[in-house]
């Protein structure tokens, strides 16, 4: 198994930090709509995406830290729990929270935008 290098640690830290910058930028951009539900949707979606990303990172980290025979099963259970929790959060935000669904989708794209940005930067 390949160990993570210091360069990999810096990349992961930069990704985590950039998630917050992108969320801040998208939230500021959403203020142009002058709608509380749009801004709440972008902010809530971004927070859900960042929490899900961090949760996934920790799950992978735990699975790789103890690569015994039970690790794949624990990772799969964690995946199902994470998926259910994030799905429930999105459902509650739309149904009970009154957030704008397209704005929520924009917020949820924070991590995707970050990964695409990082990939393009590394290709150039």
Keywords:
124 residues, mainly alpha, 5 helices
What does this protein look like?
The protein has 124 residues and is mainly alpha-helical. The chain contains five helices and no strands. The protein has helices at 6-30, 36-65, 71-95, 101-108, 110-123.
Q: Between the first and last Cα atoms, what is the distance in angstroms?
A: 29 Å
Helical residues, percent? over 70%
Radius of gyration, in Å, reads 17 Å
The ordered H/E elements are: HHHHH
Main sheet attributes: strand count, strand direction, barrel closure: none
Tell me the overall shape.
flat
Short summary:
The chain is mainly alpha-helical and 124 residues long. 82% of the residues lie in helices and 0% in strands.
Question: Secondary-structure blueprint of this entry?
Answer:
Layout: H1 6-30, H2 36-65, H3 71-95, H4 101-108, H5 110-123
Helix pairs in contact: 1-2, 1-5, 2-3, 2-4
């Amino acid at each position: 198994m390949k160990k993570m290098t210091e360069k990999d640690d810096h990349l992961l830290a930069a990704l985590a930090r950039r998630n917050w910058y992108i969320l801040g930028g998208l939230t500021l951009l959403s203020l142009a709509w002058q709608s509380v539900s749009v801004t709440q949707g972008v902010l809530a979606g971004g927070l859900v995406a960042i929490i899900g990303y961090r949760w996934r990172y920790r799950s992978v980290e735990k699975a790789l830290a103890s690569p015994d025979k039970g690790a794949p099963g624990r990772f799969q259970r964690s995946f199902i729990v994470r998926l259910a929790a994030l799905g429930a959060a999105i459902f509650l935000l739309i149904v009970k929270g009154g957030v704008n669904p397209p704005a929520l989708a924009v917020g949820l794209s924070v991590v995707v935008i970050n990964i695409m940005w990082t990939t393009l930067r590394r290709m150039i």
